[in-house]
Here is the input.
Amino acid sequence: MESESPSQFLIYLLLLTSMELSGSLSPFVANMTTLTNIWLGNNNLSRHIPDLGSLTLLETLHLEDNQFDGEILSSLGNINTLHEV
Here is the structure.
């Protein structure tokens, strides 16, 4: 029997450390509002870091060892649950 409502997935963890990723970090990540942990370190991501202020459940954000430029937006400071950057 098929469900009439669309499937809904809740994503809590984005773990892509050391995956040789390149390019920019998509602003779409900010729409994944159930994320609590983002691990994207040790890749070759570049350009600016998108505004992640909508990720109000975020606890951990690892973006080290990439090629990002620009500043980290101050909206991250409004995420009360964020304790590891």
Remarks:
- Residues 61 and 85 are 5 Å apart (CA to CA).
